[in-house]
Write a structure and sequence with these properties.
Blueprint: H1 14-23, E1 25-29, E2 32-38, E3 47-53, H2 61-86, E4 91-97, H3 105-123
Parallel strand pairs: 3-4
Antiparallel strand pairs: 1-2, 2-4
Helix pairs in contact: 2-3
């Protein structure tokens, strides 16, 4: 599997974002949270992933942008776990960093792997 994050995988549709926050389910592994919802089978979307860092915890944009970059990178490197779980079914997901703690890249990557494994167990 290619380890990239193409434009087609980015969650941008307002309809899918609204669906996530109204009907989505979530799994957490402190300080990360993954909200997900299965899309209709006719949708040509595949997997769509969005990333968010709370302004409540990181007031300065440069800190938020740093953690968003780290989340996108850890997703990109470990997305094969999610693809193995969902197969061909389309999903919309939002990936959150929700704490004041400033974890290192290695800690965030390990938490991401644990979170994706937890997601895999939740949908099966």
């Amino acid at each position: 599997m290619k380890q990239n994050y193409p434009k087609a995988e980015k969650l941008k549709t307002q309809k899918h974002i609204d669906l996530l926050f109204t009907k989505g389910k979530s799994v957490s592994k402190y300080p990360l949270r993954l909200v997900y919802v299965a899309l209709e089978e006719g949708t040509d979307a595949g997997l769509q992933m969005g990333v968010s860092v709370s302004k409540k915890y990181f007031k300065r944009a440069n800190k938020r942008n740093y953690f968003k970059r780290v989340l996108r990178e850890t997703y990109r490197k470990n997305k094969s776990i999610i693809y193995d779980a969902i197969g061909e079914k389309p999903y919309a997901m939002m990936f959150f960093y929700q704490a004041k703690d400033k974890l290192s890249y290695q800690e965030i990557e390990q938490k991401t792997i644990d979170l994706f494994t937890k997601f895999k167990d939740a949908i099966q």
